[in-house]
């Protein structure tokens, strides 16, 4: 299906195809005309199992390898990849939907013997925590009837041994992967994505072409640096988690709201459960409480028991160790230097779940505020706590403050908020505290009053559509492929990008296992992907409104004067281009107003140079 916007930018929607083992269409042949071919193996029209095969003429690489916590296949589709074929894996960040399938790749021997897993230093540390925790859950589930264990402790150890940590820098693949053909000229660059500690967008370049993978984009954190500007590229693979939401609610106001609501509930002796991603969201929540709990009076503070549990414990230790330098916000760096704070994400009165009797904590006189994975209630300790809440309390609180994927218990709770029923019946993958994991997929069914559930949308670690659009504008691609988003979010984002990103000629939505070529731009009128935007492109955009005195330009200036003036023009136009990017971040300007400002600036500039009257 092809749809056109008013600007005649086409976007193509394709659907996932069920291929048999014999007809997986993976005959790819990168070359001079097509330096890259990308094959999405997961994370296409879903938030889960992100995985993209990147083919060059001389190498096979993966970008991410995650698992799915909601509906659909659990792992990426690796059919068609031969044993030992993968030369390297690049990770954008350490969430389980981006790293959880690494042990499966190892167990199937798809990696070459010396293939590295290349990522940032914090991602290496966080992935270690995640993969060990995920292995425990995988082994427990494999004990159920009809289940099979797909990887072992040894596979996880081998994966962790392959990690090659780095910072946000540009590098040559030949420095990381031994035994590649010397003709392989691939370079890659990691830049801060503002989503999670160590998160990155990744740009790849070879044979005059460049492709950028956004990873998950944030820019809303209270402890991470802002998103780093990406380079221009021919093609962009862009996440679309919130492609249908122009702007999120205020993050700072949401932090205050969550904290205030939690303290109010505790004062009313109502327990609070905050299901949370163990990596990233849990640390942001702990940071909120650390900065504010000391403001409470002693009586209120002594009434609260703040508990963080499961994977959040190990991840918090990693955050405290690695949140510094280029990976941390200025406020965190100042806290370390000025106050000598070595645990910025750990409130003084927070108790790790394994240090306490969890059932005791629900029975004593103090009111529990519990931060526990998983954020979607699809595993971890949060489901067990909710089973206990349903059994013990008449009044309690469930704070949903992260994305809830289709098919998860968290999504069921979120959908129930807008329903008219007074209760919601859900099945949780847990038993009561201390009773382990259910032997079957039946789990434990509980009835939850909908008045317990509160949704907070302003704390998302994913950027809304405005952030995604500005990232796309900086990349200035000719082609965009939308990934990591549900179909309705991708369609909304595709229509918006087609209208708002001037360089784009095509947008792809969907296409699981479809080979996507990335070609260098050859059109004489197009921008080079590897250089700054040339002055002629900007001039052409407003050509119908500008008149040039060609006689003056040709006769009144000698060659050196012309060169000087062109240099001045190009520098000024680059400045306008940069200021344009800033203006587009300011909600006070409409797109029409911005274009009017640019036209006025260009007229003034050309008059100063004597090129128009």
UniProtKB/TrEMBL annotation:
InterPro entries: Beta_Casp, MBL, Metallo-B-lactamas, RibonucZ/Hydroxyglut_hydro, RMMBL. Residues 282-413 form the Beta-Casp domain. Pfam families: Beta-Casp, Lactamase_B, RMMBL. GO terms for molecular function: hydrolase activity; RNA endonuclease activity. Gene3D superfamilies: 3.40.50.10890, Ribonuclease Z/Hydroxyacylglutathione hydrolase-like. Residues 48-277 form the Metallo-beta-lactamase domain. Keywords: Hydrolase. PANTHER family: CLEAVAGE AND POLYADENYLATION SPECIFICITY FACTOR FAMILY MEMBER (PTHR11203), INTEGRATOR COMPLEX SUBUNIT 11 (PTHR11203:SF37). This is Metal-dependent RNase. It comes from Halobiforma nitratireducens JCM 10879.
């Amino acid at each position: 299906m092809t749809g056109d916007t008013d600007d005649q930018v086409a976007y193509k929607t394709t659907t996932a195809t069920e291929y048999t083992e014999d007809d997986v269409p993976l005959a790819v042949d990168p070359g001079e005309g097509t330096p890259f071919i990308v094959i999405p193996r997961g994370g296409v029209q879903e938030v889960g199992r992100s995985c993209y095969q990147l083919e060059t003429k001389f190498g096979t690489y993966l970008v991410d390898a995650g698992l799915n916590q909601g509906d659909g296949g659990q792992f990426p589709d690796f059919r068609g990849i031969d044993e030992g074929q993968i030369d390297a894996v690049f990770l954008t960040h350490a969430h389980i939907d981006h790293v959880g399938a690494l042990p499966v790749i190892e167990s199937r021997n798809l990696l070459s013997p010396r293939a590295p897993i290349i990522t940032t230093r914090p991602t290496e540390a966080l992935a270690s925590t995640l993969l060990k925790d995920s292995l425990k859950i995988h082994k427990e589930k494999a004990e159920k009837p009809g289940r099979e264990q797909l990887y072992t402790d040894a596979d996880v150890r081998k994966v962790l041994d392959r990690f090659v940590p780095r910072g946000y820098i540009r590098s040559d693949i030949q420095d990381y992967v031994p035994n590649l053909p010397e003709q392989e000229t691939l370079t890659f660059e990691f830049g801060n994505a503002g989503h999670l500690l160590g998160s990155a967008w990744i740009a790849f370049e070879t044979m005059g072409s460049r492709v950028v993978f956004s990873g998950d984009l944030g820019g809303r954190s209270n402890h991470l640096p802002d998103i780093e500007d990406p380079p221009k590229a021919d093609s962009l693979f862009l996440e679309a988690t919130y492609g249908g939401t122009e702007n999120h609610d205020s993050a700072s106001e949401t932090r205050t709201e969550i904290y205030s609501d939690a303290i109010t509930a505790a004062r009313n002796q109502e327990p609070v459960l905050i299901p949370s991603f163990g990596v990233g969201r849990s640390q942001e929540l702990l940071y909120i409480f650390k900065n504010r709990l000391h403001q409470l009076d002693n009586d209120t503070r002594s009434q609260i028991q703040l508990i963080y549990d499961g994977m959040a414990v190990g991840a918090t230790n990693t955050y405290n160790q690695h949140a510094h330098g280029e990976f941390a916000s200025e406020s965190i760096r100042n806290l370390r230097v000025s106050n000598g704070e070595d645990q910025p994400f750990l409130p003084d009165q927070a108790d790790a779940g394994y240090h306490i009797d969890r059932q005791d904590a629900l029975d004593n006189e103090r009111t529990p505020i519990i931060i526990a994975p998983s954020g979607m209630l699809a595993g971890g300790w949060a489901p067990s706590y909710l089973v206990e809440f349903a059994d013990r309390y008449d009044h309690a609180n469930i704070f949903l403050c992260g994305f809830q994927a289709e098919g998860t218990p968290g999504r069921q709770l979120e959908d129930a908020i807008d329903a008219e029923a007074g209760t919601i019946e859900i099945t949780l993958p847990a038993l009561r505290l201390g009773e382990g994991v259910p032997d079957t997929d039946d789990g434990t069914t509980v009835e939850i009053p909908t008045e317990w559930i509160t949704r907070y949308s302003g704390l998302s670690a994913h950027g809304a559509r405005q952030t995604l659009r500005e990232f796309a504008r900086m990349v200035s691609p000719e082609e965009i492929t939308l990934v990591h988003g549900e179909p309705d979010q991708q369609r909304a984002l595709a229509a918006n990008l087609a209208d708002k990103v001037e360089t784009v000629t095509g947008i792809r939505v969907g296409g699981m296992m479809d080979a996507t070529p990335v070609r260098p731009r050859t059109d004489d009128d197009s921008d080079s992907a590897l250089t700054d935007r040339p002055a002629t492109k900007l001039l052409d955009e407003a050509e119908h409104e500008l008149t040039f005195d060609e006689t003056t330009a040709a006769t009144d200036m000698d060659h050196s004067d012309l060169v000087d003036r062109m240099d001045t023009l190009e520098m000024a136009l680059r400045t306008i281009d940069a200021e344009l990017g800033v203006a587009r971040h300011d909600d006070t300007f409409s797109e029409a107003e911005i274009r009017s400002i640019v036209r006025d600036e260009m007229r003034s500039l050309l008059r100063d140079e004597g090129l128009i009257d």
